[in-house]
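Input set for joint prediction.
Command: fold jointly, output tokens.
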Amino acid sequence: MSVTRPRGGGIIAFTFFMALLLTILPLPEWAGPYRPAWVVLVLIYWCMALPTRIGVGVGWLMGLLLDLINGVLLGQHALALAVVAYLATLLHQRIRVFPVWQQALTVLVLVGLSQMLVLWVLGVTGAVPRSWDYWLPSLTSMLLWPWVFVILRDVRRRFGVQ
Amino acid sequence: MKPLFTQGPSTGVRLILLIVLSVVLMTMDHRLAQMAHVRSALSLVLAPIQYLVNFPVVAGRWFTEGLSTRRDLIAENANLKAGQLLLRAQVQKLEALESENRRLRELLHSGSRIMSERVLIAELLAVDADPFTHQIVLNKGSRDGAFKGQPLLDSQGVMGQVVEVGPITSRALLITDASHAIPVQVNRNGIRAVALGTGAIDRLELAHVPDTADIRPGDLLITSGLGGRFPPGYPVGTVVEVTHDPGQAYALITARPSARLDRSREVLLVWPRTQTAPVEAETGPEPEGPEQLESGADGAGEPVPEGGG
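tokens >
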């Protein structure tokens, strides 16, 4: 029951970096709306796995980067991701023991929530997207969660991130 | 198991602080023009990511170009030469028309002038972030003289305008973005309208055109230059559909953008000559030098301190 020293910060940063890359990776026109919310997925994983290290602060920072890289109002994703990180750390003990499909449902709810918060900000600033496609990232994120989960878990074990 | 909250305030308190911070940030970003400087400085941090994402595209192109055979090159070269000849011939005609137009306008004592513009080729960093905002990132920034509000063209027509300038990259809003509007006129008869972006990459809508206006499918829409931001006379789109709904006060007119918004990789940044420029000052093309820009709306064109030259 010794208190372990945090390790593998570089690995965590790298996974977030990859998520940012995937966020702006060019996709064919038709595939654009299906792009999963990569950063949110990675954030949820680390909040769940290492709630003592990755929490609202990191979520907020990643959201800010997302705002910058998307060229949208500074703070909207920051707000959304901070809330997602909060809920994920709050629920981490439960999410961890869920079977993976149930985890995926939680991811659907969390990503959906983040999208809803962003939508709310968009509504206030008068830039509401007019199509239901807006919600597709929640669905694709849910469908991709099992793979993201397995890959990130392997990465975490392989590099002993704790 | 480590104790969860050993240091600092609890997660809930931190969350609330961060939410407040986000709201403050959003309000500042929305209301204050000074935030443009902050953004442009921060964009320098993210530029490497954008270049990195673009790298496979660049590498792929380099590879295919490196592998193309001599015969292909010769054929391409011949094609280009033929194309250039054609364009030269057209430009000659254009120049003659331009000077004729200038003479006629002077006869009429008309205020507006044909203007020649300085252009710079910029390349798209292959970045399409959000499918619901039509923005692109360019590899030219304030270092190259780009400024906020600068018009952007491709070989076919108007693409959009620069909305954010960083030291080495800038961000442009396409004319199809739902928040974009561009003053146009019908090439055939000069009817003026405003073309609004719809959020669909292949569709523009003309706002508030009276039901009786003479606009037909196939009409070419060109920039009218009335907003003072886009130079006049560039193609914007072609009218594809005119619907008269008896229940509506205005005709519903949709157009297809002329520019290849989803395909062009090379775009032209344009330095328009201001409408008020005296006619004597416009003799021939402008000498090089990015310093001759107009004051740069809200001072966003000012170069910010650069990190890496």
